Amino acid sequence: MSFLIVMVLLLVVMYVLMIRPQRQRQREQVTMIDGAGVGDDILTTGGIYGTITRADGDDIVVDIADGPAVFTVHMTRRGIAAVLPPEDDEEPDELVDADVVEDAVDEAPVTESQDAVTTAAGGDPASADRR
């Protein structure tokens, strides 16, 4: 009887830790693929980036090159590996001008009471990194 309880508990744990999360990921993947529409940037299962230009049910047409020669690929929705988020053309606010950073480093305060750090190798700090 106790063997049966252990087996049931093992199956419940396996379901909670393995099967259920996999089903949730699979459901999210299907929702993402079904939600892909015209104008979305995608990554195919073959590793090709492209933009959906036409969608007719399960069949889609993807442009995989820009410029004077546009290449189109006809494929099924099952060939979509990921729908890519839209690219932001704006630069992030965190970018800092390199000249400003160099000026800030040059102007760092130095206290007189600190001694220079030396290593046992005779003051060559690079030799401490060699092992």
Give structural notes.
The protein has 131 residues and is α+β, with helices and mostly antiparallel strands. The protein has a domain of 82 residues. The protein contains two helices and five strands; from the N terminus they run H-E-E-E-E-E-H. The protein has a five-stranded antiparallel β-sheet with strand order 4-3-2-1-5, with helices on one face. The longest helix is centred in the N-terminal third of the chain and has 34 residues.
Instruction: Pick out the low-confidence regions.
Output: none
| Strand adjacency order, main sheet | 4-3-2-1-5
Query: How confident is the prediction overall: mean pLDDT?
Result: 79
Helical fraction equals 25-40%
Largest sheet entry: 5 strands, antiparallel
* Number of E strands: 5
Structural class by SSE content: alpha+beta
Shape: elongated
* Distance linking N and C termini: 61 Å
Radius of gyration (CA) equals 29 Å
The SSE string, one letter per element, is HEEEEEH
Total number of helices: 2
* Percentage of residues in DSSP E strands: 15-25%
List keywords for this structure.
alpha+beta; 33% helix; 131 residues
Q: Concise description?
A:
33% of the residues lie in helices and 20% in strands.
Annotate the secondary structure layout.
Layout: H1 2-35, E1 41-44, E2 49-56, E3 59-63, E4 72-76, E5 80-83, H2 98-106
Antiparallel strand pairs: 1-2, 1-5, 2-3, 3-4
